[in-house]
Amino acid sequence: MKIAFHTLGCKVNQYETQALKEKFIERGYEITSDDDFADVYVINTCTVTGLSDRKSRQFIRRVKKINPDSITAVIGCYVQVSPEEASQIEGVDLIAGTNEKNHLPEYIEEYLMGRGSSVHIKEYDQLTEYEETGIITSMDTRTRAFIKIQEGCDRFCSYCIIPYARGAVRSRARTEIVKEAERLIEKGYKELVLTGINTALYGMEKGFDSRGGKQEAVKSSEDEVYGIEIIVKALDELPGDFRIRLGSLEPNVISAEYAKRLLKYKRLCPHMHLSLQSGSDRILKQMNRNYASADYLKLVDLLKEHDPGYGITTDIIVGFPGETEEDFSESVKIVKKAGLSKVHVFKYSKREGTKAAEMKEQIAPQIKAKRSEELIKAGEEAGKRFLLQNLGTIRTVLIEQCDPNTGLYEGFSENYIKVYCRSDQNISNQFAAVKLIEVYSDGVLGNLINS
């Protein structure tokens, strides 16, 4: 049977789709493109915004036009939060929530035999155990692989529905993470990206034991390894030619003091994605972010002190309910001050079921659009300054591929700069020392030192 997957949303969804692909391949299914005719279509949904929900519904209708007789399975966050709505969409045959998607092969086979339920959803208070998906052995990219280390979130930011979609914080056993990392390194992957719903919360739940048991971790000694450092340390000690990159981190979990602990690991890339969301302390409080802009800048200063070229990317929301021009200007100021390498700007989107959706003083669309445009420009200027500051330095670049149109090899430096360079030899999927010489395209042109 032919099966096609369509994935919306975050890196965790991408990882979980890959895990499912491998399960179906083991059962003899043939993976095909989501544009092609297939017997089964799997839509792994996102529900961050109302737009995400709409995209999920649109794709469901699209695949039914390709093959009206196909089995359409809709899984993930949208289904978890809105199971009745999802199951009533014309053409949907089977739904599975965030903690049930791992069992999709069995559910589909039961459905084909006319047995079992077509609805597989656990209630929010049942989302308490980490659901092991098994060891993945490949990714769509040939150089970089995601490793899921954590599930769930307990921060409850006022604009975010994801804690309700993903449930309680639970961490994956260290042994499983290490086993997966070893397999991926053996397969030739040279960058391992640690990801989760709130990656920084790894090992922070009560009673956590990194071996997968229920003994409570000890934090009394300064030398005691806890939190995400457990995994960074374990992977840093593995043999092989690879590096580690952290996924998105929350400054309400990772303090400057804790970040300092991570800087000693040589394989860890000097790059963090630290979600700011607003430069205004008043708005941060309304968002329930539990840190101030000063805390964020303290963390930035620590990282830049360690490495002036440390790459820091971020997310910022404009037009949050009640955001004044003064609040917005604080976001612009921090973008200019923090030496950020890239800023992802999002216009606030009301998400039903969150506290922010019920707040008064919702901002008009035209004001959100104007602020978004201004902040994007400030972010682009900050990114350009970051690139200029890195010129003349030598960085380690993981070469991904050669563009046949330009003859240039391209890849990312350890501090997450897109780098282009020439080589007479095939250097794909190799680390190369490159001197950055000039701003070029969406990154920097460099001279190859060695590989």
TrEMBL record:
Enzyme class: transferase
MTTase N-terminal domain residues: 1-113
Cofactor: [4Fe-4S] cluster
One Pfam family it belongs to: Radical_SAM
Chain ranges of the Radical SAM core domain: 139-385
PROSITE patterns from the UniProt entry: MTTASE_N, MTTASE_RADICAL, RADICAL_SAM
This enzyme's EC code(s): 2.8.4.5
Catalytic activity: N(6)-L-threonylcarbamoyladenosine(37) in tRNA + (sulfur carrier)-SH + AH2 + 2 S-adenosyl-L-methionine = 2-methylsulfanyl-N(6)-L-threonylcarbamoyladenosine(37) in tRNA + (sulfur carrier)-H + 5'-deoxyadenosine + L-methionine + A + S-adenosyl-L-homocysteine + 2 H(+)
Gene3D superfamilies, per database record: Methylthiotransferase, N-terminal domain (3.40.50.12160), tm_1862 like domain (3.80.30.20)
Keyword field: 4Fe-4S, Cytoplasm, Iron, Iron-sulfur, Metal-binding, S-adenosyl-L-methionine, Transferase, tRNA processing
Entry keyword Iron: yes
MF-aspect GO terms: 4 iron, 4 sulfur cluster binding; metal ion binding; tRNA (N(6)-L-threonylcarbamoyladenosine(37)-C(2))-methylthiotransferase activity
Primary role: Catalyzes the methylthiolation of N6-threonylcarbamoyladenosine (t(6)A), leading to the formation of 2-methylthio-N6-threonylcarbamoyladenosine (ms(2)t(6)A) at position 37 in tRNAs that read codons beginning with adenine.
Annotated family: Belongs to the methylthiotransferase family. MtaB subfamily.
Protein name per the record: Threonylcarbamoyladenosine tRNA methylthiotransferase MtaB
Organism name: Sinanaerobacter chloroacetimidivorans
